[in-house]
């Protein structure tokens, strides 16, 4: 079976996010008001083959733990979608 | 009213994604098999004040068009969540 995994990897809330702060500060200059916070992370799409949704979940979890997210500075969350 | 906007900014499908390819090639070395494609983009969380969901949608659209996404190389999609 084929699955699509949508992963979000974000900086821990306790961490300062300079990129997000820079965007947030500049939005009023572009005429966009009322934006109080901006946080920027990674969105990763995996297409993978697995015998079951459980196995797809394990592969996604291992991918996040081993290469996609740095546990010291980031947290991750993902959703799994059967493709075929 | 306060809203949280979850934005995904991804490289156009037609574009080569070297970062994603590098991750995809390395997953088997980490014992993760069956991953056929990896695409890496940005996940951006906005917290904004707006008088209605429509106004929140307009602010999110303008933010994407003006600063968050490069229309030549990227596409964006977002979901809006009332916070309070």
Automatic annotation (TrEMBL), chains A, B:
Which domain of life, per UniProt?
Bacteria
InterPro entries noted in UniProt:
PurS (IPR003850), PurS-like_sf (IPR036604)
Which molecular function term from Gene Ontology is one that the record holds? ATP binding
A Pfam family this protein belongs to? PurS
**According to its UniProt record, in which pathway does this protein act?**
Purine metabolism; IMP biosynthesis via de novo pathway; 5-amino-1-(5-phospho-D-ribosyl)imidazole from N(2)-formyl-N(1)-(5-phospho-D-ribosyl)glycinamide: step 1/2
**Which of UniProt's keywords are assigned here?**
ATP-binding, Cytoplasm, Ligase, Nucleotide-binding, Purine biosynthesis
Signal sequence interval, chain numbering: none
Cellular location(s): Cytoplasm
Recorded GO CC terms: cytoplasm
Q: What is its main location?
A: cytoplasm
Q: Which reaction does it catalyse?
A: N(2)-formyl-N(1)-(5-phospho-beta-D-ribosyl)glycinamide + L-glutamine + ATP + H2O = 2-formamido-N(1)-(5-O-phospho-beta-D-ribosyl)acetamidine + L-glutamate + ADP + phosphate + H(+)
Tell whether Ligase is among the UniProt keywords.
Answer: yes
**Enzyme Commission number(s) from the entry:** 6.3.5.3
Extract one GO BP annotation from the record.
Answer: 'de novo' IMP biosynthetic process
Family membership, please give it: Belongs to the PurS family.
Subunit info here reads:
Part of the FGAM synthase complex composed of 1 PurL, 1 PurQ and 2 PurS subunits.
Q: What does this protein do?
A: Part of the phosphoribosylformylglycinamidine synthase complex involved in the purines biosynthetic pathway. Catalyzes the ATP-dependent conversion of formylglycinamide ribonucleotide (FGAR) and glutamine to yield formylglycinamidine ribonucleotide (FGAM) and glutamate. The FGAM synthase complex is composed of three subunits. PurQ produces an ammonia molecule by converting glutamine to glutamate. PurL transfers the ammonia molecule to FGAR to form FGAM in an ATP-dependent manner.
Could you tell me what this protein is called? Phosphoribosylformylglycinamidine synthase subunit PurS
């Amino acid at each position: 079976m084929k699955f699509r995994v949508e992963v979000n990897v974000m900086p821990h809330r306790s961490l300062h996010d300079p990129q997000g702060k820079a965007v947030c500060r500049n939005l009023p200059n572009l005429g966009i008001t009322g934006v109080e916070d901006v946080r920027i992370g990674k969105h990763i799409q995996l297409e993978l083959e697995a015998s079951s949704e459980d196995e797809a979940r394990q592969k996604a979890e291992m991918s996040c733990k081993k290469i996609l997210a740095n546990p010291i500075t980031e947290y991750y969350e993902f959703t799994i979608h059967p493709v075929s």
